[in-house]
Design a protein that fits this description.
mainly alpha; MetI-like fold; flat
Amino acid sequence: MEAQTDKSLVLPYEADAAATKRTTWKRIRKNIDLYLCLTPGLVYFFIFCYIPMFGLLIAFKDYNMFQGVFKSPWNDFAYFKEMIHLPDLYKITRNTLMLNVLGLVFGFPAPIILAILLNEVRSNYFKRVTQSLLYLPHFMSWVLMGGMIYALLSPKYGIVNQVLQWIGLQPVYFMGENAWWVTVFIGSGIWAGVGWGTIIYLAAMTTLDPHLYEAAAIDGAGRWKKIVHVTLPGIMPTIVILLILNLGHMVSIGFEQPYAMMNPLVMDVADVLSTYIYDLGIRQGGFGLTTAIGMIQSLVNLALIFGANFAANKMGREGIW
């Protein structure tokens, strides 16, 4: 009798699980074309992002390339202890945070503002041409971009300094002075990324209900009030998600831009974690130490993403999860 009772209690849960499984597979079969479209991206991330995580063991071992990762002896967290005492750790961390914070403060609002301005343009031809010109730099290599920037800002032959001299001002060595170099770095980053970000926000604006704008117009709202009360609240979920993702990169920075734009005169502000890791790990062969630095970067970025997502949820906004 007890066995029958237990069976009657278990069977509904098993039935629910089986029904859920059938529903899941049915949904997958129904959308098999969409899952196939996801396959290349999943394969890419698996090969280039998840498989390389095996190399994190190097941070915990006294790595010898002739012995291999598994046969190399454990180092009792020696690289993490050594990392704390690096002479340039404070400088490169400060530079990385400074450039990322400035890039977030000035670069994050730029595509939002530009997308709103383009959304208010009535000429579709002008809008399409402008979008194409704006996101073109996103597909250009930073090696090419860096060469263009150096050519434009050259103190002797650059067109910017020639214009300054035509109006009676002294030429400025933009790429040789710390403050100007930081300004150029942030400005070039905005130039390269603003067009791509604008596409994302314009796509979010296309999902807004046109009836909301009509209702606002009936209530007497002009263009500015429509932007404030309809457009911005409508794209706010996209803004929050992208802000969380940007906050998750505060202690890491791309390698190409700083490496293409740096020079010996501005190393006090141009030397960041990515270039330091390249120099220490690739040029000097400090694989274990740079792996430890990279692991700490990833953990801090992960903590920032969790913290930003938690803060967004607490404020009543929809986060990543």
